[in-house]
Amino acid sequence: MPDYSTYRYALFVILFLFFGQLHFNPLFGQELKPKLAEFGPELLKPQPDSVRYQSFYATENDQDSIFLIQLTNLSTFYQSARLIVSLTNKSKEHIDHLWFQLRLLTPQAEFLYREQPVMFTNIEPGQKVSYEVLCESIYPKDIGYVVLRPELIELNRKEKPLETRLFEMQNMTGFPVKVVLNTRFQ
Asked: Of 4, 11, 115, 186, which is least packed with CB atoms within 10 Å of its CB?
């Protein structure tokens, strides 16, 4: 009786080489490079005495509101980047829901990691809460921008328009990462 294991091994090697050629052939791969992100009118590095303490949002009681978003931690967790995003409610309003989409870009503003939902709920005035995001197969040194795209804000059970001037952004990590709000892509 012939030994078929040698034939199976040879067939496996031939198929591997054939399909490997197809997989790694540039004709079958993606040739297009990702577009660069085009940032909106927001400042990447707000000036210290600029917009941040103006009257941002007039409530029924004519109180000013501001929401502080901080990247408080950026570290490696196994083969992933671990980000901790904190929100401080510096307003006199109760936040029912505040929802963002978070995405990562390289220092050259190229796509690095898909959007991840970040949702803060039930935050009292003066309270600080944190949200952890894990991004697989990304290392902190690869990140140039943390982009937060606002989706929804609900204050005292009423949905309100979300404007970039409502927020103060800060990077509290040792990494040279820019935290950007309301970025538009073309």
From this structure: 186
